[in-house]
Design brief:
Radius of gyration: 42 Å
Number of strands: 5
Strand order of the largest sheet: 1-5-2-4-3
Strand content: 5-15%
Order of helices and strands: HHHHEEHEEHEH
Number of helices: 7
Amino acid sequence: MGKLQQENAENAENAENAENAENAENVENVENEKIVESAPAAPQEPASTTTVTSTNDDRSRGPSVYCLARRDLISAISTKGSGFDHAPKRFAGASQRYRSLTGKVVWRKDMDSCILDMMRQGIADDILYLSEMCAENKRYYIVKCYGWDDVRYKYNGAILWFGEPEEDATSGQSRGEPGPFATFGVEKTDIQGTKYITSVAVHNMPMLLGSEQADRIKKEADTLSDGSIFMLAGRRTTDVQMKLWKLQCYLADYANI
């Protein structure tokens, strides 16, 4: 009888312990579920991604068309009966992509003057930049010439003419105003002592740039404020020399050359 009571007591204790363990496990599961429910949701990956292209793009949206850089031709395009007045429509291109633009092309009446002003502005800005480099960094991209006889002792670069030098005017050696495509012959001597003649381009700056831009250069460029003849020297000046020659070709009167 005593043994039976002991076994019942042990069974009751085991049952109680099992029930307590099960209850503790249930409580722990409930707490875990609460933690999961209160946790922030993970970010969801979008089903698809759309790439938005910026509209702030400076690239040209139309076709590229090339035209001869002559002012008389650009002016003729805006002149009725010149034979070139239908040219703006051709600038829309022949491809199907841009054919719809043919009837929407607008050509400025002063396009020749607009292009001229842009070319002059760019050259003036380049010369002012080179002058600044000379003044601040002691470069020699622009060299003053003390009269025409002094040109032979300088580098073989283009000459910028802003007027007749006082040195030549007072000595009676005035050469007159340089015209389009003017050159100046310079006598040089090679390392073997042989003399030869080389020609350098002479750019009449008031004629090419107009009085406004020419006066601006003389006023703002410290390197060119004193003197009338200057020479562009060094490879750094190649770009502006090409622009000056292009401007010569743009303004030239080909009928009287």
